[in-house]
């Protein structure tokens, strides 16, 4: 046992005995003899904020991450003073605070330890910066698992790893490389089937150590700021994530087209090249909704300008693309070229909106346009100004989405690849150095961009994508995983990153399909698109230096595979949109790693490859060349192989066939999967019929939902949406599908085509809303096991 005195020798300081306690409604303050204050805020019965001050002094309380819309309030709060500790009891947890040393232990109501301080809060004074290095260490029982933390390209279970959060432009990053572009200081711990979460809301450079340094200890620390974290009790992992997302915010629904397939390259230019690519998609009938313009569309890389040579009439081009169903998305970087004749530069200079060094000069750095200055997006006035800059691009030219890159912020040819630490930031009226603002810079840029696009796209919905992000960025933007590489290992990484981002409250994420750096083989591209269509954001992108990466550059077989999977994504749009609605509404992660799907099955704790897309579709990519299939773990429960329709029992590892045109895909029994007809882009066709694939299950009810609305705009917020709930009940010789619709949106289609999969009997009789109907009148097709019912039926009863 190391004593406090020994540790103090190493520079660590510890809280002493508690000398006073006070309560102000939801805030409990415990003060120690040496001037440490622990302030607990009871946010909800299962969400507690822990905030520690040293020298009796809290900083101004300000966070970019916390959303104002989150649920607050608790039903019970009792505080009792005992001999050795204070006891705090809510409706969900109990918390002990040791009077001797301020250490805390959190229990569930049955008395199981959920999270316990090891050394607890301690700190080191930082002579160089004047603040503290704030630290927290927790006991880590053997067998505890850890998940979360954003975009880390390593095993999903973080046990044994040390992690660093410092947003970094990491071109061609590798497996296990850290830090990367994002910093999401939120993790989920799970021990004996009970999960909890910790969000360390500190934007300085932070570290997390999961039993790497000491086998039985998990710790986290920051190079400045406060020890300020939120504890979320589960015990279900999904509840931990929804509570975290509730606190840090949920996205609005994107326009449906943003869930279509997107094509990108660095760069498509001139206009004729853009048109050649978009026409080829239509010619080959590979659905596609968006085309991206990378930095070369600008005049000398000046943001908010267009190259006269390559894009002489952007408005006309964007309109013509729109006529063909393509939405144009353009890149906007933070670096503003130093150029007296450039209006954006002039305005920012006049208004004094660029970041400055501590001693006065502007923060000057080289990026694509050459020498640049950088707006201080942590200044609310700068964000307001920036948002106005989008007027022309969005309102006049008709661009539909904006892509924010280089916002770590990235600077070329300098050590650390970013701003020096001394750069000053406004931080919404809490002036600070870059040490504190670095990790939030990208999010504030994306936020300002979102506000601009939203304002000028109104009454349509905005679409933003960012590379850098901090917790809470999901309120404004989607994201991609940065500059990956065209290798099989990166296919594994992409799968991990998309799942991890989903668990970290940022579901709307995807990778550069096929890899950004280098060039994939056709086989790798095919395997990647098969996975990519199951990621919430789905875009092919490449650096273009090593050849083209449009699907047709890999030959006919790959074109066919691409078409097959992109078509499947478009058919599944109502399913995907419903997943998004559940994410936007309740914070439910769109992708669920198996551990999140079934945490009580220990087999899932170290799985990485398989995941659940939404609630009912199991996906497992093939990640090796020359494969004819793979072994995978099918989680507990019963499933149907989507391709062969074979019924499979889960709870074991098994071989699954998967030639190049197949990705292992399973549907949960009892699921009702909605499909739209194939379209080349969202809105191409009137949806004249909804299809439901009904996967028969014997026994208990299974619930499925379909959310629909106008696919863009905000009418849904006024109740003009359609939410259909279906429940399936299967018996040996009959089945019932109940259907209930809420919301005032009238869907275009008048009929629903139902296809039964795995039905163990031949349909002989059908009743709709308790009225017997003839099989002819519902277009019953015995071979395909399909029938057509009115879209407003309430109960369908089939009997064998
Ligand atoms: O220094 O805009 O990650 O997607 O194509 C490279 C050019 C800058 C990095 C992005 C990438 C983009 C590229 N950008």
From TrEMBL:
The UniProt keyword set, sorted, is: Glycosidase, Hydrolase
Domain DUF5110 per the UniProt entry, residue ranges? 689-758
The record places domain Glycoside hydrolase family 31 N-terminal at 38-209
According to the UniProt entry, its GO molecular function terms are: carbohydrate binding; hydrolase activity, hydrolyzing O-glycosyl compounds
Where does the Glycosyl hydrolase family 31 C-terminal domain start and stop, copy by copy? 587-673
**InterPro entries listed in its UniProt record:** DUF5110, Gal_mutarotase_sf_dom, GH, Glyco_hydro_31_AS, Glyco_hydro_31_C, Glyco_hydro_31_N_dom, Glyco_hydro_31_TIM, Glyco_hydro_b
* Glycoside hydrolase family 31 TIM barrel domain residues: 251-579
Which CDD domains did the record assign?
GH31_glucosidase_II_MalA, GH31_N
- Organism domain of life: Bacteria
Set out the biological process GO terms recorded for this chain's protein.
carbohydrate metabolic process
**Pfam families for the chain:** DUF5110, Gal_mutarotas_2, Glyco_hydro_31_2nd, Glyco_hydro_31_3rd
Look up keyword Hydrolase and say if it applies: yes
Q: Which PANTHER family match?
A: ALPHA-GLUCOSIDASE (PTHR22762), HETEROGLYCAN GLUCOSIDASE 1 (PTHR22762:SF120)
Family assignment from sequence similarity: Belongs to the glycosyl hydrolase 31 family.
Q: What is this protein called?
A: Alpha-glucosidase
Species the sequence originates in: Aquimarina spongiae
């Amino acid at each position: 046992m190391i004593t406090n005195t020994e540790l103090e020798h190493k520079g660590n300081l510890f809280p002493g005995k508690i000398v006073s306690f006070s309560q102000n409604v939801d805030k409990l303050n415990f003060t120690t003899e040496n001037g440490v204050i622990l302030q607990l805020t009871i946010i909800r019965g299962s969400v507690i904020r822990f905030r520690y001050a040293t020298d009796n002094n809290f900083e101004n309380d300000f966070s970019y991450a916390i959303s104002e819309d989150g649920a607050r309030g608790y039903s019970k709060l009792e505080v009792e003073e005992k001999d050795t500790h204070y006891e705090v009891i809510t409706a969900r947890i109990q918390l002990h605070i040791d009077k001797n040393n301020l250490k805390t232990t959190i229990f569930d109501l049955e008395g199981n330890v959920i999270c316990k301080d090891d050394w607890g809060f301690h700190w080191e004074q930082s002579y160089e910066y004047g603040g503290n290095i704030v630290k927290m260490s927790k006991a880590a029982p053997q067998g505890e698992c850890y998940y979360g933390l954003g975009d880390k390209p390593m095993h999903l279970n973080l046990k044994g790893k040390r992690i660093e959060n410092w947003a970094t432009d990491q071109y061609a990053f590798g497996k296990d490389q850290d830090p990367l572009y994002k910093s999401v200081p939120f993790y989920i711990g799970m021990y004996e089937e009970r999960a909890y979460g910790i969000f360390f809301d500190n934007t300085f450079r932070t570290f997390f150590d999961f039993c790497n340094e000491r086998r039985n200890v998990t710790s986290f620390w920051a190079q400045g700021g406060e020890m300020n974290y939120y504890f979320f009790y589960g015990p279900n992992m999904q509840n931990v994530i929804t509570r975290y997302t509730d606190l840090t915010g949920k996205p609005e629904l994107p326009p449906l087209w943003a869930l279509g397939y997107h094509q990108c390259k660095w760069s498509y230019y001139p206009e004729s090249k853009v048109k050649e690519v978009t026409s080829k998609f239509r010619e080959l009938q590979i659905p596609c909704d968006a085309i991206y313009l990378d930095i070369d569309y600008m005049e000398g890389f000046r943001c908010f300008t267009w190259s006269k040579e390559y894009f002489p009439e952007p408005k006309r081009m964007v309109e013509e693309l729109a006529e063909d169903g393509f939405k144009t998305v353009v890149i906007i970087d933070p670096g503003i070229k130093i150029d007296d004749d450039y209006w954006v530069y002039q305005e920012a200079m006049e208004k004094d909106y660029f970041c400055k060094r501590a001693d006065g000069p502007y923060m000057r750095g080289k990026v694509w346009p050459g020498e640049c200055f950088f707006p201080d997006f942590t200044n609310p006035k700068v964000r307001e100004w920036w948002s106005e800059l989008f007027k022309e691009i969005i309102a006049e030219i008709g661009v539909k989405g904006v892509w924010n890159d280089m916002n770590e912020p990235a600077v070329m040819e300098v050590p650390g690849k970013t701003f020096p630490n001394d750069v000053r930031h406004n931080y919404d009226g809490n002036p600070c150095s870059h040490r504190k603002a670095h990790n939030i810079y990208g999010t504030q840029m994306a936020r300002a961009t979102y506000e601009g696009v939203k304002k000028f796209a109104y009454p349509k919905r905005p679409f933003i994508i960012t590379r850098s992000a901090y917790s809470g960025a999901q309120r404004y933007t989607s994201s991609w995983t940065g500059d990956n590489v065209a290798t099989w290992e990166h296919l594994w990484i992409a799968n991990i990153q998309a799942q991890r981002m989903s668990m970290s409250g940022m579901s709307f994420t995807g990778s550069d399909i096929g890899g950004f750096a280098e060039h994939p083989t056709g086989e790798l591209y095919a395997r990647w698109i098969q996975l990519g269509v199951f990621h919430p954001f789905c875009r092919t992108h490449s650096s273009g230096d090593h050849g083209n990466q449009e699907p047709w550059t890999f030959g006919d077989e790959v074109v066919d595979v691409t078409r097959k999977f992109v078509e499947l994504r478009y058919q599944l749009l109502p399913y995907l949109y419903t997943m998004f609605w559940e994410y936007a509404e309740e914070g439910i992660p769109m992708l669920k790693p198996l551990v999140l799907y079934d945490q009580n099955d220990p087999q899932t704790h170290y799985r990485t490859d398989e995941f659940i897309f939404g609630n009912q579709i199991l996906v497992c990519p093939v990640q090796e060349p020359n494969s004819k299939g793979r072994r995978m773990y099918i989680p507990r429960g019963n499933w149907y192989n989507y391709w062969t329709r074979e019924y499979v029992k889960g709870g074991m590892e098994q071989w699954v066939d998967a030639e190049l045109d197949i990705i292992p895909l399973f549907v949960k029994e009892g699921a009702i999967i909605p499909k739209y007809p194939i379209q080349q882009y969202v809105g191409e066709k009137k949806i004249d019929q909804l299809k439901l694939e009904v996967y028969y299950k014997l026994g208990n009810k299974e619930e499925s939902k379909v959310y629909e609305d106008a696919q863009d705009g905000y009418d849904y917020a006024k109740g003009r949406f359609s939410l259909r709930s279906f429940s399936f009940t299967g018996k040996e010789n009959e089945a019932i599908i109940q259907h209930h619709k809420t919301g005032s949106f009238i869907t275009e289609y008048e009929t629903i085509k139902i296809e039964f999969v795995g039905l163990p009997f031949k349909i002989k009789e059908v009743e709709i809303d308790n009225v017997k109907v003839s099989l002819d009148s519902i277009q019953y097709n015995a071979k395909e096991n399909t029938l057509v019912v009115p879209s407003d039926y309430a109960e369908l009863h089939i009997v064998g």
